[in-house]
């Protein structure tokens, strides 16, 4: 059983996640050219994680359901619901680990400079944003079964956070709006709820061919 799971993980990552992951890693090399690696304030230090990484998360998690978007594949996977749930969980964990590594790389870069800000808060903030976006996408897809909605709604939410400064603790610009830990903990709890709800719906309401 463990060997089968290991083989499933390796095959799925190689076939479905590898190209997206490599693109994200290459793309992240431009971060130092867009944002300062020696920020002058906590707000400036938060910009990569709150302005760029949510978009990267939308790109990653939005592709989570893409491989199953044909009628023939759906017909097959409907007979293997448990295996499908395992695949979705594998993909979610893979992309979450990838984004945590990227976020950790940003924080490591800060630590090597003369930055004296709260790096633990920044790291938690960056990772929560990725988790919250990913969980939102899982829930949106489970309710709509539409890939377009999985990309569009989080993107509109991100745009709302940019353009409307009165979302309180629900804004993705948590540190940039000087909210600290409280907004991040709320988003982490909501993200956990969204994730559980999404996977429960996916489990008990199989996709239709």
Give the helix proportion (percent range). over 70%
Please tally the helical runs, counting DSSP H or I stretches of 4 or more residues: 8
Range of strand content: under 5%
- The coarse silhouette is globular
Question: In total, how many domains does the architecture comprise?
Answer: 1
Please summarize the sheet with the most strands. none
SS elements, strand count: 0
Question: Nearest-angstrom radius of gyration?
Answer: 18 Å
End-to-end separation: 29 Å
Backbone structural class: mainly alpha
Average pLDDT taken over every residue: 86
Can you give a write-up of this model?
This protein is mainly α and 209 residues long. The chain has one domain. The chain has helices at 2-27, 31-34, 42-62, 71-77, 81-112, 119-144, 147-163, 181-204. Helix 5 (81-112) runs antiparallel to helix 6 (119-144). The longest helix has 32 residues, at 81-112.
Keywords:
8 helices; mainly alpha; 209 residues
Q: Topology, please?
A:
Elements: H1 2-27, H2 31-34, H3 42-62, H4 71-77, H5 81-112, H6 119-144, H7 147-163, H8 181-204
Q: Could you give a short description of this structure?
A:
It is built from eight helices and no strands.
């Amino acid at each position: 059983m463990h060997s089968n799971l290991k083989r499933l993980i390796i095959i799925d990552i190689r076939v479905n996640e590898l190209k997206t992951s490599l693109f994200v890693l290459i793309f992240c090399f431009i971060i130092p050219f867009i944002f300062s690696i020696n920020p002058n304030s906590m707000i400036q230090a938060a910009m990569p994680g709150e302005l760029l990484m949510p978009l990267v998360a939308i790109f990653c998690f939005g592709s989570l359901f893409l491989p199953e978007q044909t009628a023939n594949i759906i017909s097959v996977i409907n007979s293997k619901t448990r295996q499908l749930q395992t695949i979705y969980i594998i993909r979610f964990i893979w992309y979450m680990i990838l984004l945590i590594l990227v976020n950790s790389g940003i924080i490591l870069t800060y630590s090597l400079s003369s930055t004296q800000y709260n790096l633990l808060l920044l790291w938690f903030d960056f990772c929560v944003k990725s988790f919250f976006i990913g969980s939102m996408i899982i829930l949106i897809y489970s309710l709509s079964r539409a890939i377009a909605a999985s990309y569009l709604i989080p993107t509109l939410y991100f745009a709302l956070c940019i353009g409307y400064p009165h979302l309180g603790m629900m804004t993705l610009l948590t540190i940039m709006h000087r909210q600290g830990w409280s907004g991040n903990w709320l988003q982490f709890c909501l993200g956990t709820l969204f994730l559980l709800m999404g996977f429960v719906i996916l489990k008990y309401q199989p996709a239709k061919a």
